[in-house]
Structure formats: C-alpha cells, structure tokens
C-alpha cells in the first residue's frame, strides 16, 4: 500500500501580462507562493512600491490580469491512487487550466481548493498548468454595477471591494497603499495517495478543579476505496514524550478516540503560566502499512467571555482557566501588502515583541486576512490570546446567494484550519460594519429574530454576522466564543459604553478629545483606540529618497500618511501639548511623545478600572504594526522598530503597576488659567493571583529645581489586592496657592525591598514647562560582549527619555521619565562594548 506523498510546487513557474500572448512575455517567478508585485520587482519591471511615490507608478499593475504557468511532470502514480492538486490560496479571480482544460474557477482568496487531476495526468510526460488571474479591481466594479439597488455605504477603499472576497486593505486603507495583488499567494501541492487523513481535530474538556482533562480526537478519512481495513492510530505526547495511545476504526469516514489526562498541564497566556502544548498525532494504517500521518499542537484550557449584569451595565472580559484576565494588547493588520513575503520567522518576531511589551491579546482585524498558520503557532507557543475577526470591514456588504455560499465555504475552511489553536479565544463577525449600519441609517431591528427578514433589509449582511457565521462556529468550534461584530453589544448602539466592546475614536478622529481624559471615554472592553506617530527616522530614510524632502510636512511624507486630515490632527495634538519643532528628527520625536502619552493615559486608567468590578475588561490599541513603511497609528513600524509608545504600554501593563494622576484641568477652555487646586489619586494595579505587601512612596518634585517641594508620602505594608486595584489615595489635594512651583508627582512601589514599578504624573501641558538644564547623566554600567547597561540619573525631572532604536538590539526600557533621587538602569542586548546609543528627551 503506497504512502501519501506530497510535492510542493514552488519552482519552475513563469508569469506574464495576460494581454501579452507572445512567448517571450513569460518571465520567471523566483518562488511560489508569491504575488505579482514581487515577481515584477524580481524581473526589474517594477520599482519598490514602498519607496517615495512609487506606489503611483505601480497603479498600472492593479488594472491588469496576469497568467502564471508551470510545466508539470506526471508523478509516479501507484495503482489505485489519485492525484490531487491542492491550492491553499489563490488571489483572487483564478481560472486554473491543465492542458487547456479548465479544472477550477475560484473567486475567493480565503478559500483552499482540491482538484482531482488523476484523469488529466494519465498520459505520462509533461503537462501545462496555467492559472489566469483576472483583474480584481475591474471585476469588483462590474459586480457593483450589477447591483445598483444595494446601498454601498463604506469607509476606506473603493466600496466595490465589498463584492469581492479578497483582503479589503488591498483597495487601500487609511494606513496603506492601493496595491491590488494577484497570484498564488499560498502553497500549491501535488498530492498522490490512495488514502489520507483529511483533518484532525479535538474537543477538550477540563474539570472545574483542573485535576483531569478529557480529550476527544477525531480524524476524517479520505480514501479511494472505503473498505473496513483502515485503522487510525492516535498518540498524545507532551514535550516529545508519548503519554497515551489509542487505535480506532473509521465509521462513516470519521475515527474517534478519547483520552483522559490526569493532572493536565494547562495552556496559559504569558505572565499567568506556561503556554503548555500537547501534540496529537494520527497515523492512518492499512494492514502493516502506514499510509499517512498528521499531527497538531493543542492546548488544554478553558476560555470564557464573562458577560454579567453589574453596576456598570454588563461586563465583557475574558476568563482563562478560571482566572479573570485583563487583556491589554493590540490590533493587528497584515504585516505586509505583499503577503507571501512574510515568513514564519517574521511572524514570530512580531509575537515575541508583543510578549516583550507585556501584551497579552492580539486582534486580527477584519480588513486583512485569516493569517498564516505560523502566526497562530507563534501565539500558541508564546502565550498570546487571539481575537479573530472574520474578514469584513467598514462597510455594508451585499449578500447575493453565490456570495453567501462562498462566504460559508470560506468560514468552514478557516475555522477548520484554525480551531485547534488554544490561542484563539474569540471570533468576531466583522470590523465596524455595525457602525456603518448606524452612520448610513440602515435598518437594524434587533428584536426581529427572523434571518430571512434580515436578508431582505438594506443591511443584509446581518445575516452573515448573526446567522451564517455563528452557525459555522457552533458546528465546528462550539467552545469558542462568537461575537457578531467589533464593536457590538447586545444590539445596542455601538458607542454604548455599558455593554459589549467599544472602538473609541473620539481621540484623534471624532470630537478630538484631549488624550489626558482617555480613561473617561472607555467602555466595557476597548477594542480600538489610537494616536498616530511618525516612524523611526531610519524608516523614514528608507522611503524618503531625497535629502530636500526630509522635513515634517514634505510631499512624500504626506503621501506616506493615508489618514484623512492627518496634518490637522497631528498638528492639533502637538500644538495643544508641546513646543513644536520644524526639524524632522525632533518632529518625529514629538509625535512619538504624544502617542506614548496617549496610550499611557488610556491603558493606565482602564487597567485601574479593571479593579472596579471589571469595569474595563481589556484594551487593544489601534494598531500594533504596519503593512508598509508609513506614518500611522502603529506603535511598532514596518521594520519592527518600536516607537516610544511600545515601552509606555509595557510599563502600564507591568503585572504590578503603580499609578498616580492629578485631575485633568483643561487649559484650553479655561483660557489657560491655572487651576487653584488639583485633586490627585494614587493606586496599585496587580494582575497577580496572590496578595502582596509593598511599600508605596509619593514625592512632589519641582520641575524647575528638582527639589522636593512638599513632604513625601510613604505607605509601608500596603496590602495589594490580587488581580485588581488597590486604591491608596483617592482624595489627595494639591493647593497651587501654597505649592506654586510646577511639580511632578513621582510614585514608586517596592516589593520585597526592590523597586517594582514607577509612575510620574506631570503638570499639563508640557509646553508651559521649562525644561532647561536637566542635569541628566547617562553613563555606562556593566557590560558583556553583547549586553551593555546604561545608568541614568538626573538633577531635575526628565520627560520621555528615548534611546535610539537600532536593528539587532533590544532595549529593556525606553521612553522613560527620570526624576532626581531615583537612578534607573537600561539594559541593551545586542550592543557591543565599542558601540553607543544616542538618546533624546523632551526639551533637550
Ligand atoms: C478603525 C479601524 C480601521 C481604521 C482605523 C483608523 O476604525 O477599524 O478601519 O484604519 O480605525 O482610522
């Protein structure tokens, strides 16, 4: 009995413009998977679209159709075997021909396809495999025209995008270029077999006391001849060691076994325990022969979303293995416009960065793609929770029968592909489509529970989010929580802060509130909020080619910022808060200070609210990453260079964090009259499970002299509430008629005699402060061959000390506030003894 064999078809491909039928038009493809922009660049036909204005010179590519071809050799086909061409992803309108016969037509890049080509390859020798990719840009416009009665309301990109199942950001977004890719974007294989295991999945139950787990494992048999002689041998291993083995005979093609695991090693998000993974393997056997083997890593854990009525409305937070978890993290967009260019290592680096930044949840946003397996594998391995949107974003989607059918297949395929990942704890129906429903005044009667009526309404996609997708989840991954949209809450208006999740854009977009009040604008779970900042200077140097363009408002810099009104908004937040600058380096830094402050003001307050009956269940900033080198809300740029906000967020998400904050006094609307008094508060937020005892100190330090202007407050033996907030001072008052000098409130927390956390509250806005002559000293401390430490001290308070980011180095901290009498140390990994780092601080 022949073994299952698989040949990856990655080489020997050629491509050409479909309209150019001359034989010389074929150009070699370096490697498949790829998309046409990569292949054109490799052939010298396209300049890097990420540099300068090249995106515009690449527009012609978007309007073309492309053909890919490869000569196939008939593989050895043992008697009784079939040959299948397996496509994991075709982008997007693909007609696949084998020797001029159409074998597949596909119009959804999120689906995989399997085509039996046994007959077609019967004759020995060479066969021509050709794939025509029809122009998705034009096809979308045609499809839209065919349905003029649909209300094509949307924001971002051409509304016609909603007619096509292709990553929506390819039509351009408010952080990304218009690059309409086409190509074989995921693996294609030739498989030869008489039988194979088509799928392997599990259902995992965990006892409430965590003493034992029950794993049911299932495989699906796909065989040419379904006789009863097949057996499936299942093994369960942990850290490479087999712990259990069972054999089953398939019934109706499904083989099932059950394992009981005493004392299971649970999968935990990082910071709460190890992300333990088991391996489940299934071997298909016929007689003595092993025919096919597949394996998956699985995790034993429970994941719940707790929605209970409470004094704030209705809660929305995650409980993993019985532990309530404040989910601080980020929203994720595709890490590149040219998706196949992201390899497993780059995905891993992104997730490693999240862990280094103490972020615990990533939201895969609905305008991108169902990510590569290696993305979720990295999340499983490193203990990062995943909020997974379905791929719909910012629009009123049509629901033609053939589109619904395609969407259903897409959902089935992807949920099957992803369901074993313990990291995935929530599926959401879409991104902001309910907001479009609201803003466009479309019909949404929550009380009407008849899905057929929804289809007939002017918001027909409700059928997708409240019927089609939840049915798929119920069938294929019933233990995973399903949420109709992000944001969404029990059918209430999406801006309702008392229920469901919330996208809070009234800082930056909307009413452009001051970021200092961000904490007062949150809801039960803040799944989007953001502030733009320029990327690292070396990233700017990558896409700005000419020295003459290296000033903050240059044409090319504006071109690399796709957000409507970005100049006004950046300017508003800078002018309100900081003394602005015109040199690029300082300007970059200032925008980054604003972003870091914004993120801190949001996260810090919302984490504090966690302790108030889970008032806020989590915060996912917009956005972690970029898909090209650009100016956006990302806190880490395209080249994985962190912006200062990355460190500000990490500090606020410290497992035990101290917070100090004086009340907001709005200087703009009081005609810049200073307040007479300011209340202040001091607290500790802990995500640890045990009560701690610590010492908390608060000092009042003059910005001008660095001296303590008032007696410090010290609380010894503070009992720190586990997994909650400990309020230490709630009614502090600064009397500015007595303490007239502008001063910072500098808080420190000691645990077991060591400083465990710091926070500094500053008089606002920074532009009124005099930052002259800080007396900052940065000196070298201990060093090894690849690790240097820097000791930092100051005579007067320093705001946002940022160290240079350099590829290959890692900073233990940055974007720090330094105050007198509290020296700090930064460890730089990857820096050699002879190298040094530049740094910058506010008012330098
Ligand atoms: C949110 C997101 C994105 C957008 C971002 C910034 O609404 O869902 O669509 O990029 O805001 O505007």
UniProtKB/TrEMBL annotation:
Its EC number is 3.2.1.25. GO terms for molecular function: beta-mannosidase activity. It is an enzyme of class 3 (hydrolase). Keywords: Carbohydrate metabolism, Glycosidase, Hydrolase, Polysaccharide degradation. The keyword Acyltransferase does not apply. It catalyses: Hydrolysis of terminal, non-reducing beta-D-mannose residues in beta-D-mannosides. Gene3D superfamilies: Galactose-binding domain-like (2.60.120.260), Glycosidases (3.20.20.80), Immunoglobulins (2.60.40.10). Pathway: Glycan metabolism; N-glycan degradation. Residues 196-301 form the Glycoside hydrolase family 2 immunoglobulin-like beta-sandwich domain. Residues 679-768 form the Mannosidase Ig/CBM-like domain. Pfam families: Glyco_hydro_2 (PF00703), Glyco_hydro_2_N2 (PF22666), Mannosidase_ig (PF17786). Residues 13-186 form the Beta-mannosidase-like galactose-binding domain. One of its GO terms (biological process) is polysaccharide catabolic process. Belongs to the glycosyl hydrolase 2 family. Beta-mannosidase B subfamily. PANTHER family: BETA-MANNOSIDASE. Exoglycosidase that cleaves the single beta-linked mannose residue from the non-reducing end of beta-mannosidic oligosaccharides of various complexity and length. Prefers mannobiose over mannotriose and has no activity against polymeric mannan. Is also severely restricted by galactosyl substitutions at the +1 subsite. This is Beta-mannosidase B. It comes from Aspergillus ibericus CBS 121593.
């Amino acid at each position: 009995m022949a073994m299952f064999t698989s040949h990856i078809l990655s080489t020997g491909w050629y491509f050409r413009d479909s309209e150019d039928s001359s034989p010389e038009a074929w150009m070699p493809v370096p490697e498949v998977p790829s998309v046409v922009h990569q292949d054109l660049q490799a052939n010298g036909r396209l300049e890097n679209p990420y540099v300068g204005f090249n995106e515009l010179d690449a527009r012609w590519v978007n309007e073309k159709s492309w053909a890919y071809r490869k000569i196939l050799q008939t593989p050895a086909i043992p008697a009784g075997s079939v040959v299948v061409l397996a496509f994991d992803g075709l982008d997007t309108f693909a007609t696949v021909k084998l020797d001029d016969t159409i074998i597949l037509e596909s119009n959804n890049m999120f689906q995989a396809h399997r085509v039996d080509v046994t007959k077609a390859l019967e004759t020995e020798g060479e066969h021509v495999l050709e794939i025509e990719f029809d122009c998705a840009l034009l096809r979308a416009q045609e499809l839209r025209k065919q349905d003029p009665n649909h209300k094509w309301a949307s924001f971002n990109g051409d509304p016609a995008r909603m007619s096509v199942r292709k990553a929506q950001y390819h039509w351009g977004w408010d952080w990304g270029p218009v690059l309409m890719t086409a190509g074989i974007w995921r693996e294609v294989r030739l498989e030869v077999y008489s039988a194979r295991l088509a799928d392997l999945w599990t259902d995992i139950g965990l006892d409430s006391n965590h003493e034992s787990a029950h794993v049911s494992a299932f495989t699906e048999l796909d065989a040419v001849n379904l006789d009863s002689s097949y057996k499936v041998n299942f093994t369960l291993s942990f850290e490479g060691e087999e712990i259990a083995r069972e054999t089953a005979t398939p019934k109706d093609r499904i083989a099932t076994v059950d394992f009981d695991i005493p004392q299971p090693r649970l999968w935990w998000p990082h910071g709460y325990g190890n992300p333990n993974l088991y391996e489940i393997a299934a071997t298909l056997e016929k007689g003595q022969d092993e025919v096919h083997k597949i394996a998956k890593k699985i995790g034993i854990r429970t994941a719940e979303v707790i929605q209970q009525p409470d004094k704030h409305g209705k809660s929305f937070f995650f409980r993993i293995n019985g532990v309530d978890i404040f989910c601080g993290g980020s929203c994720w967009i595709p890490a590149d416009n040219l998706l196949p260019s992201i390899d497993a290592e780059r995905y891993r680096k992104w997730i490693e960065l999240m862990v280094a930044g103490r972020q615990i949840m990533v939201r895969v946003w609905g305008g991108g793609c169902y990510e590569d397996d290696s993305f979720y594998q990295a999340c499983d391995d490193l203990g990062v929770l995943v909020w997974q949107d379905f791929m719909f974003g910012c629009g009123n989607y049509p629901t033609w029968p053939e589109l619904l059918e395609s969407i259903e297949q897409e959902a089935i395929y992807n949920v099957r592909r992803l369901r074993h990942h313990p990291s995935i704890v929530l599926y959401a129906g879409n991104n902001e489509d309910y907001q479009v429903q609201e803003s466009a005044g479309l019909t949404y009667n929550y009380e009407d529970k008849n899905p057929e009526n929804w289809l007939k309404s002017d918001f027909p996609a409700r059928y997708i989010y409240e019927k089609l997708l939840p049915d798929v989840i119920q069938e294929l991954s019933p233990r995973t929580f399903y949420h109709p949209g992000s944001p969404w809450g029990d059918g209430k208006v999406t801006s309702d802060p008392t229920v469901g999740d919330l996208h809070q854009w009234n800082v930056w977009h909307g009413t452009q509130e001051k970021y200092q009040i961000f904490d007062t604008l949150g809801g039960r779970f803040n799944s989007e909020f953001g502030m733009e900042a320029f990327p690292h200077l070396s990233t700017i140097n990558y896409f700005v080619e000419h020295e003459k363009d290296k000033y903050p408002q240059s044409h090319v810099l504006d071109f690399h910022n796709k957000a409507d009104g970005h100049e006004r908004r950046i300017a508003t937040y800078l002018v309100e808060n900081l003394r602005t600058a015109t040199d690029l380096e300082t300007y970059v830094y200032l925008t980054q200070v604003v972003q870091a402050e914004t993120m801190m003001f949001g996260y810090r307050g919302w984490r504090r609210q966690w302790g108030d009956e889970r008032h806020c269940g989590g915060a996912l900033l917009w956005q972690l990453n970029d898909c090209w080198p650009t100016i956006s809300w990302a806190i880490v740029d395209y080249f994985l260079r962190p912006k200062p906000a990355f460190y500000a967020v990490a500090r606020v998400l410290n497992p035990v964090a101290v917070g100090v904050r004086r009340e907001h006094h709005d200087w703009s609307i009081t005609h810049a009259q200073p307040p007479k008094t300011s209340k202040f508060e001091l607290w500790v937020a802990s995500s640890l499970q045990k009560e701690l005892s610590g010492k908390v100190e608060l000092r009042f330090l003059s910005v001008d002299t660095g001296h303590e202007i008032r007696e410090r407050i010290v609380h010894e033996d503070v009992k720190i509430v586990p997994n909650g907030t400990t309020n230490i001072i709630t009614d502090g008052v600064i009397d500015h008629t007595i303490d007239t000098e502008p001063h910072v409130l500098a808080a420190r927390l000691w645990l077991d005699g060591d400083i465990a956390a710091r926070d500094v509250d500053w008089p606002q806005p920074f532009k009124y402060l005099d930052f002259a002559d800080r007396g900052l000293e940065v000196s070298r401390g201990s060093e090894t061959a690849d690790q240097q430490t820097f000791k930092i001290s100051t005579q007067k308070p320093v705001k946002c000390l940022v160290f240079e980011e350099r590829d290959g180095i890692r900073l233990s901290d940055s974007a720090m506030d330094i105050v007198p009498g509290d020296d700090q140390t930064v460890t730089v990994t990857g820096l050699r003894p002879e190298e040094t780092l530049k740094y910058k601080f506010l008012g330098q």
